[in-house]
# Entry
Amino acid sequence: DDTVYLGGDFTSVGGQTRNSFAAVTTGASLLPFTADGDEVGRAVEVTPDGRHVLLGGDFFRINGTTTHALAVVDATTGQLAKAYPGFIHNNSTVQDITTDATGFYTGNEGTGGGVFDGRIALNLNDFEQRWRDTCLGATQAVAVHSGVLYSGSHAHDCASMGAFPDQPRKHLLAQSVDDPKLLPWFPDTNDGIGEPVGPRVLTAASGGGSDYLWVGGEFTTVNGRPQQGLTRFADGPDTGAPWVPNVSLSTLTPGRIDVNWQTSFDTDDGELTYRIYKDGSSTPVHTTTGYSVFWDRPQLTWTDTDVAPGETHSYRITASDGPNTSAKSPAQSATVASSTEAYPARVRSDGASLYWRYDEGASTFAHDSGGKLNNGFLRGGPAYRQTPAAVAGPSTAIGFNGSSEYAYSNRLHAAPPRFSVETWIKTTTTQGGKIIGFGNLTQQNSTRHDKHVYMRNDGRLVFGVQSGGARTVTTSGAYNDGQWHHVVATQGPLGQGMTLYVDGQARASNILVSGNENYPGYWRVGGDNLSGWPNRPTSNFFEGQIDETAVYPTTLSASQVSAHYALRNG
# Structure
């Protein structure tokens, strides 16, 4: 009506004491409303019924009562109606508040370790929490439109709520007002100039028959294009096509071709439709749907049984969000097998939970041949289709440059109490590097890292886990001789402990180490952090060729390991 509520770092209004918050009439007269804070007020929002005012900021007390960063006060008197002691971390503040018909929503910024940077949804009927997310990366602004809470932040780590791990910042996010799960809406700005924090203000508005989300801040680009300080997103039309799918074919089972692909990414749709085209036909032979977001692009598979041994067939796939369809993927061809390849058959029968053969031609996709759909991302553009491969047959290997190229699993895994890792390597490096391991991050060096095999500068191999400190076993021989070598590391219960096999034989062991560090993580191949590990090599990353990588949820026996090695020639 005729009241203006204000917040800031003032201590008086119109010559009278008012700390951080005040109310005046539209005619500029000071009102009795008193909600004195002891620190800066940053956010003010009136509830839809006009009875209360929602306050946010840095404060620890309102009118002398403990309530940090958030408070609900009477709209006429300023008397505290709901306090939030201990509700928000002491090093976090409320930067913005918005409402809809049933709730109010806060954007929070923290400084230092263990702080709260995300969003909180609260009910208007009782002022209690509905949900909160725990993304890290300070939230500066929030706005609600059509049941969706939009936020401007520099979110970089949402792993604690099942979303993306620590990585380069994302500046615009969307969530249902009823659920903190991130929705598939990912336009982006850059950090911009100044502090930098990217977007600072959001508001929804309508005009010309369309609804718009306006975004303001210190950014200088939007979706990679120059756009400084102010931009808007419309409710339509949708004009952006999904990414072209990455496709890989497999002929491990005689008489069929498995068509595998990495689900695509679309900036404003999670559920996409995929159509498979065979042998140049314009009519799809198979149509299916799959859900994906930028950090989780799972593998999908379709099996073509309308084939015969010896025949060669090609396949292309498109991804569609409905109005828009990607280009067809480059044609991939495969010849139908008439017999089973011995080596991959044994890996699968021994229970591999992840099995990458690196047969892709040129993509970011390492498909899982083990049937568990634990596909991988290939980073940095490694050298594809390296020959000769480690194992006889039509398969190829992959080459890593020792500085920026590696692979990581799409899926976050719980720390395995028992495990085996297996891979083949060929190198002449004198810089060492990590060959395979488990780490908590994907797009940068992990801060927690173990369950790994790495090569020292002298070519000797080390298998290490964290168990009351770094526990390692090391080979006596060097393996940087330019030949293919089969490497398997296993950890089992006390009495089995750690064993490192090379070329079918146990080369080092410690039967007393049965535990490893417990944290969720990703399997990484070709490079990751080696800080703090004994005889740390010059490089974190492995320069050389890698092939036939497998991970098992069990401890492979010595006989299983030797059997795998014996099958290398077919």
Observations:
- Residues 151 and 378 are 31 Å apart (CA to CA).
- The chain has three domains: 3-234, 238-339, 341-569.
- The chain is about 5% helix and 45% strand.
- The first strand starts at residue 3 and ends at 7.
